[in-house]
## 1
Amino acid sequence: MGDIIQLLPDSVANQIAAGEVIQRPASVIKELVENSVDAGADDIRIYIRDAGRTLIQVIDNGSGMTDTDARMAFERHATSKIRNASDLFSLHTMGFRGEALPSICAISHVEVRSRKAGSTMGTKLIINGSRVESQTPDLCDEGTNIMVKDLFFNVPARRKFLKSDKVELSNIMREFERLALVNPGLKMSIDTGGKTVELRKGSFHQRISDLWKGSLGSQLIPVEAETPEVKISGFITRPEFARRHNPLQYFFVNGRNMRHPYFHKAVTNCFNGLLAPDTMPCYFIKFDVNPSKIDVNIHPTKNEIKFEEEMLIWSILSAAVKGSLGKYSAVPSIDFTAETLPVEPVKTTGTQELPRIEIPADYNPFADAVSRQSRPQQDNYRATNRVPRNWETLYEGFLENPTSGVQSDGSNGNFGTVFEPGQKAPELPIDTPLSSTPGISIQYANKYIISCDSRGMLIIDQHRAHVKILFERLIQCFERTNPLSQQLLFPEPLHLSPAQEDALNETKDILRQLGLKISGKDGEYEITGVPPEFEDKSPVGIIQNVLDSVMEDSVNYGNETPEAIRARLQTAVTLSMARSMAIRKGRKLNEEEMESILAELFSLPDPALTPSGRRVFAIMDEGAIRRLLP
Ligand code: ADP
Ligand code: MG
């Protein structure tokens, strides 16, 4: 039998390597911009068309390449940056494996123009799928200008794997944000066809403020530490500006973006007890370490990095973050040994507004099971917004037989299943009939409303209950022809990051239908109208949360139909808005607030589950209590 093993042709090997290095248009931008930075450029311009599918162009004013270097650059393992394996461990530059350009040219049409500083003539090189088509002298500017066209033209599987333009564009913008953060000293711009972002040279703080416009800059406090092992510098957000969704969290080591779950924990642990529930701090932290003490080569796209002295750096980082929280935070003095700290910033002015629920005087949500099922009455109910002072009368006629629901077998008549302590609670039927009224309510642990009805003791998650209520109110908006909107007396400025701006464009119609009026452009917007449900809540935080969560979600939009995407977006936006507005865990509630939550919750057709399917309340019946007290 003949020999069957052959060496792969370079073009094939390059295509395979490309799979590792180049996953999407954003990866091309990363590699090209890093090369420009390595070439000493201080002005880098990026042009994108069709989310990078048809064109990615990077123009720099760096060192440029000679004719021969330009040609060599596209050969496999060709690099000017390392000479031997030990160089791998002492790298200060970005790229280091000589793989990027050959990978890119294997899967696209590439056109390069480059001129070395001081040379009279530059060179122009055309390469199609690894094949050099031509090289000619060219009168180009000093520096390098690379055009990458028709990405993945010869790898249909890859092309198919690309997400929608919106998603790829948002990946590109996030890559741009990372690159811009690493290089605040460089002038950078990106033009995506629809919009342009231009960034001036400046400090790290200025770059962050320029990227995310406006308020973020003033929410940051510096973090600094310097020891022989590591220099740490950067910023964290004050705890009160922590976000619910998509917090901006960045680590950089020696000028390279990295992921580091362990250090992430170190930072977030410092915020323990300082954050409102479900919020996460932003951080932008740079590490400078001796390059020989890290291994950058453990991940093909080079963003997971191994530190030799991880434990030590952990404690230095942790001390630095705690130090600046103590020094700069709005909280006057922080006892880091304390287990818990107040989670809600203390409101100094004004009295707490009660959630208002309005019910027509003649409407009794519990009148009878049949009419409760009927939709028109529900709508009637939700269209209004206030609990009458005499809300108790709603429950009249339901108090005669307080134990009627409990059966002799210890289960409960309407419910069948009850919560067993120490055992996973069984699924609740979605449409839980309310057999009688909840009685007096108390709050437990500032998180739960405890009440009783004929089924037993109700333990209601206050946050989930309120999310459910708000979601049901807001979702009604999509049935209206004219959205209800409250004009703001003073428009609120809204600064958006490029990625948030993409999310805004994607959800404009939905937000309008919900009653939000937002106008502006280029990252600077203002809110002029809000849904009545916002009451006196600050709309800026809510909208930013919503946009951040849309960005998170959009990553999953694969091959769905436009209608399916729209329906999903609609639910996602509404749910995220309800979550942002809802009463949080940790908020003390007064009696009236608890009552109005219960009244509205139990008037809904399916109070048992949140829109995302989580349990709103549990029931502990007499049998369960008896088992607890045998
Ligand atoms: P690496 O960056 O790992 O060396 P690349 O394939 O990205 O590998 O680049 C190969 C070589 O091409 C680089 O080492 C550099 O010498 C040259 N090069 C690439 N881009 C530029 C640029 N924009 N300006 C000057 N030289 C460049
Ligand atoms: Mg490179």
## 2
Amino acid sequence: MRVLGIETSCDETGVAVYDSEHGLLAHALHSQVDLHVDFGGVVPELASRDHVRKLLPLVKKVLADGNSDQKSINGIAFTQGPGLAGALMVGAAFAQSLAFGWNCKSIGVHHMEGHLLAPMLEENAPSPPFIALLVSGGHTQLVQVLDVGDYEILGESLDDAAGEAFDKVAKMLGLPYPGGPAVAALAEQGVPGHYDFPRPMVNRPGLDFSFSGLKTYVLNTVQTELEATKEDTLSEQTKANIALAFQTAVVDTLRIKCLRALKQTGLNTLLLSGGVSANRALRHVMAASAEREHYQVYYPRHEFCTDNGAMIAYAGCIRLLRGESSDMSFSVKPRWPMHTLAANRSAS
Ligand code: KG4
Ligand code: ZN
């Protein structure tokens, strides 16, 4: 089965062709970072309009790159939620219209299921059961995956997602959007141990996360330093030290909770995905932990950590192969809790 995948949930237009026999045939991504950078974050209306502009050229390019055409495509997968309503609507309307015109099946994919399955696009991909840590701008979740589609949320953030905390700390430090890569780059100049920030909720039992207190801790540190130096801005070195202490605290918290989830379930395979899983310090710490504690850790390749069309094509292909498909409505689900995934599907 060959599937065209379309991702438009936020600020990246992602398109890909995945074939169940031959793997990923082509993918293309247009990032809207330049469009939103002056606003310090994603402007939903601008995002929707840019998806309208970019979708058709990207689809044409990916079909050509993947030696595919209308006849060879068996299904169209699109991100149905969660995400920005207008941006999702663009992808859904485009995908459904194309499926209608091409007389093929369509399937609405849960964006986080796409992230969760993204490591499966790699050659060394493990099979379930495993634990997945989803760390993106909107979600921080530990999921027990017994099979594709069989997900149990073991823990999640009670407030900010890890990526959201990176983005907010970036703003506090005067760094540009998107904040995660900017904080990570600055942290490389930081002096280890200059600050020691708290690891939220690690001393309590359970697998939930909370990053909003850590964010406030960063803000208080920024204010204390400004008062101490009587300057209007922090020195570059102080900013770097704060970025490093913040990143270290987030990474350590994620490591502790992942290990706890593995021990609690008796599983020894961990998949990390979502934008924050691109973080080099996180990968470094998790690799050392996996070696020490004897578990396996997997990631998507770098460009599939953040939003992309390949993960949507892949997740859609698996769902279509199972006989699932969507009706022709343009409905999107800007809020779509992952635990309702199975219940929200209509097989045909
Ligand atoms: O998965 P994603 O592209 O979009 C969502 O579904 O949210 O994740 C984007 C998030 C942003 O918060 C971004 O700052 C964060 O991932 N991010 C990173 C890194 N690259 C992206 N956070 C930390 N370190 C990175 N290298
Ligand atoms: Zn995402």
